[in-house]
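Study this chain:
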Amino acid sequence: MERKKIIAIITGAISVLIALAYLILVFLLDSRGEMLPAPISDLSLIIFLLS
């Protein structure tokens, strides 16, 4: 019974750490500012190179 309890606590702690890491990552990505689309001239060059 004691081993199951320890595994449950460790699993819960890992889950909380993953959730915190996700929240920090989302916060950092969101704080970079507004996402602006690429200029049309750059997009046409990429499309030309890929085709």
Residues 1-34 form one domain. The chain has a mean pLDDT of 86.
